[in-house]
Predict the 3D structure of the following.
Amino acid sequence: MQTLTIIGGQWGDEGKGKIVDCLSEHADAVIRFQGGHNAGHTLVVDGKKIVLHLVPAGILRDHVTAYIGNGVVLSTDALKKEIDELAVQIGDVSDRLKISEDCTLLLTSHAALDQAKELKRGGQAIGTTSRGIGPAYEDKISRRALKMHDLFDLESARDKAADLLDYHNFLLTRYFGVDGVDSDQVIANLLEAAEWLLPMVADVGYEANCLIKQRKKVLFEGAQGVMLDIDHGTYPFVTSSNTSIGAVGTGAGIAPSRIDHTLAIVKAYVTRVGSGPFPTELHDETGVEIARAGAEFGATTGRPRRCGWFDAVLMRRAHQLNQFNGLCITKLDVLDGLDAIKICVAYDVDGSSRDNVSGNARQLERCEPVYEQMPGWQESTCGIRDYDQLPLNAKRYLERIAELTEVPIDIVSTGPGRTDLIYMPSMSAW
Ligand code: GDP
Ligand code: IMO
Ligand code: MG
């Protein structure tokens, strides 16, 4: 196993950051391939909390080169803030961070548009992170975005940015009826950023292919989760990028055939932030208890995460799309102490049973989960590192998930720390 891709198997926040950090111990390079600073990954290293948004989680390992691929929409302000915060926490990372010259630049005006759009949607709001992700991808697809390589020629970057900001300000003031942004300030910020950014700019796709050719270990880091995929998720309650396996090729610049192993990171239950259908959502005390035990608050926006039972139907769909080689089940310890645990094994849709549905939000809203109930366990699983030490009912629960999803378990996570992990024998190949 020389190349490994990490994909969030649910609606994000599955613990991808922690797992990327742990697996980076054996990686030479880590490449982020989609999304932007809507992502929020909390890592706990030696009891210290580190929150990452744009910088790949591999950065915490001194021997790792971290790459931001072309598929990412990049806010220079957010990146600067993150690099500065990391400098205080772990030291300067800029010499190990490389950014694709083809990254799309995300401007303050994109965030203003995101917020204005959400306001206009009213009760139908998506509940975005309001970072400007959707509008930045819109500009990319419409071929009017500024790319990182535009900063190679500051004069032309200034003109291009002025045109784009004119358009954004027209939308903000004339269509949405809100304040525009100060174009001169945005342009000044951008040109100032060019100075510290350009030394980090690289041909990431080329470097990734060279690393693979040299038999180096490369880890591809996904953000968000499959059910937030712009094509396959619960549209329109999704993010604006492809979060599934196909995005590795387009967002990092490698061929899909270069990926040896795809690991789905999934929680032992499910959470979701923002609006949209969530068939197994819990609206009772158990939901509140899981949210409390799992500290389920967003790392980017601080919003409470909605919690529910593990959904094997959606997971089977995620597997169909990604053909996962293994599962990493996180936050098993959060379920400690429950008397009973439910797994959604099918949906009842208008009286007929379905075990495979598309993410189509309208359809999902009509799905009633059909549950299988399993006994819980009263012992603590916190920090367990050996599969055999898990309570019998915890093992039965994990094995049932593997059986229902038809994906074997590679890793079980039993706490937020780096060592709170059970590696199954299949991972010895990494
Ligand atoms: P990501 O966006 O997928 O990286 O996930 P987040 O970082 O947004 O959310 C996962 C949260 O769960 C973080 O606060 C992690 O520190 C924490 N976490 C990760 N794995 C475990 C685990 O196995 N048990 C517990 N209790 N917490 C975990
Ligand atoms: P990580 O990488 C959970 C959700 C937002 C909203 C929808 C669209 O930490 O798992 P956007 O700002 O992307 O236009 O918002 O997507 N969302 C996430 N939810 N984890 C994330 O990232 C998310 N990134 C976006 O809450 O519902
Ligand atoms: Mg997160």
In short: Residues 154-175 form the longest helix (22 residues).
